[in-house]
Each structure stands twice: as structure tokens, then as C-alpha cells.
Structure prediction request, 330 residues.
Amino acid sequence: MRAFVSRLYGLSGESVVLMEHLTRLTLSNISRMVLGNKYFGVSGGDDRVVSDSIVSLQELQEMINEFFFLIGVFNIGDWIPGLYFLDLQGYVKRMKALKKKLDQFQDHVFDEHEQKKKESSKDFVARDMVDLLLQLADDPDLGVKLTYDALRGLTLDLISGGTDSTAVTVEWVISELIKHPQLITQATEELDRVVGRERWVEERDIPQLPYLEAIMKETMRKHPVAPLLAPHMAMEDCNVAGYDIRKGTRVFINTWSIGRDPSLWEQPEEFRPERFLGRNIDVKGRSFELLPFSAGRRMCPAYNLGLKMIQLSIANLLQAFNWKLPDNAK
Prediction:
């Protein structure tokens, strides 16, 4: 976080494409948790690769960006199978190239972790998610055998899921706040009152910053990262709000429309964090009018990490800088 703020400080007075820096922050953070400190560390106020890894942090970021682009494209061959082999848009070629790069990088990471595990022998302690997954893969009592393909998929899920969603939410927060300067004033007044200006805001301060939390919740209401939650399935015949839903029906939850439902929210198109002050509406799957992380057994497993990263990022950005649109734009 200090390296992130330091990089932005070096750009003070310039126009900044904030998403690039936010993605770098979240990617370096989640990469250290998933892959280990050996690959990505902080030195001299900046991120750097601290091993002979075959990709740099920037290259990994480019691969993740390409991954998100390709899973969202409209590929003609998927809808007209007879044209699939032609790869008219070149997306399949790009997917294959990306898979090759990701496989090379992940195999390099797995091999180094396996070697470290062998060298440690009985003293081995899992220090990151790859260590843990490799332990599970070697467990003969595990109900579902983890293959290398499964390990690749799980690590990619963790890195991509923990990178884009947090960065997008923080970008939306700053976008809304810049359009409402009075909200920035209120948020910084709270920071000055709780934290002061003699030290940086820390994770332990977050519970004492209710207005900051309200800003985050209002952003998640108006700009959910997943407008449609991961598909669910009806496990039995049921009736919901007068509608008969048959067993096996695939169910999509539209959080975007819920967040703009005037029967739930007064003036839903307005950005008003105050609507969450004094109201017991959480984002942990218990308040169905606000479900940014889904609910139940298919809820995002890393919601707690996401909340901490989002709130700490917002707090640092507001504490460190005065934000406005470039060229005095309105």
C-alpha cells in the first residue's frame, strides 16, 4: 500500500489512469498470498520481481488483462459451430497463446514449490496457497483428486478473482466521489478525526470509519462488480413471489436491478452513502437487497479480504491526495 501511494505521489499534478495502478496494487497483493513472497515483493517503495521468475509483475498483469478480455468476448464460432474452425476473429488463436504463457508460468511456480517442499521434508510448512494446494494434491485421502490442470485453474481463479473485482470497485468509488466533492470533504473529515494527519490510516482503523464503509456499500449497490451473480440451480420445485420454479431451473440473480429497485431504495439513481448510516445492511449475504458477494454456499469465499482491501485502498487514496477531474472538467 505504501508503494502504491508512493507511485501515485510521484505523479502528483498529472492526469492518472487510476485503474492501471489499482490493478498493480491488487495483483501484487494477491500474488504474494497465492504464489508466495519469492515471486513478488516490495523494495525501495516499488514492486519488483524478487526471483528469476519467467515473467515480471507487469507481464503477469498483461496476461490477466488478456484473460478477462477473452472470457468476455463474443466469439462467432461459439454461436455458429460451422464457422468455429475458421476462427474469424482470431480469439481462439489468442486463447491458445495465452494458455501456453500461463501454463509455462504456473509450471515454473509449481516446480519451484515442489522443490522447496522436498528440501524441507518433514519440516515443511505451507506458506501460500500453492503450497497448500500441492499438499492437498498429495493427500491420498482426499475425496476428489487434484490434478495439475485443477491446480492451474484454482490458482488462476484466485489471482484473477482477487485482482479485478477489488480494483474495479475502488475505481468506481473514486469516480463517484470526484463527481460529488462534498462527499470527499465528509470522508476526509472523518479520517482527520479518527486517524489524524500524523500517521497513515491502518487496517485497525477501518471499523471506526462508518462513513467510509457507507461509501463502499453505496458503490457496491450502484455499481456491482457482478451484475449477474454466478448461476444457481433450484434443487426442488418451489414458489417464489407467486412464480412456480421447477426443480433444475437455472437461476440468475440480477444484483444490478436489485440495486436500482425504487421499492427498496429511495432515489436509487443518486449516489448517497448516507442511506447506509444507522441501517443494519451488511454485504455478507444476510441482507438480500445488497448482495455484492452473493449469499449461501456459493458466496465469494474471499469477501472478507475484498472488504479490507477496498476500504484500506479508499482510505489511503483520500488521506494522501486531493482528487479532481483533469483540466478542471465538470
Q: What stands out?
A: Residues 41-46 have pLDDT under 50 and may be disordered. The radius of gyration is 22 Å.
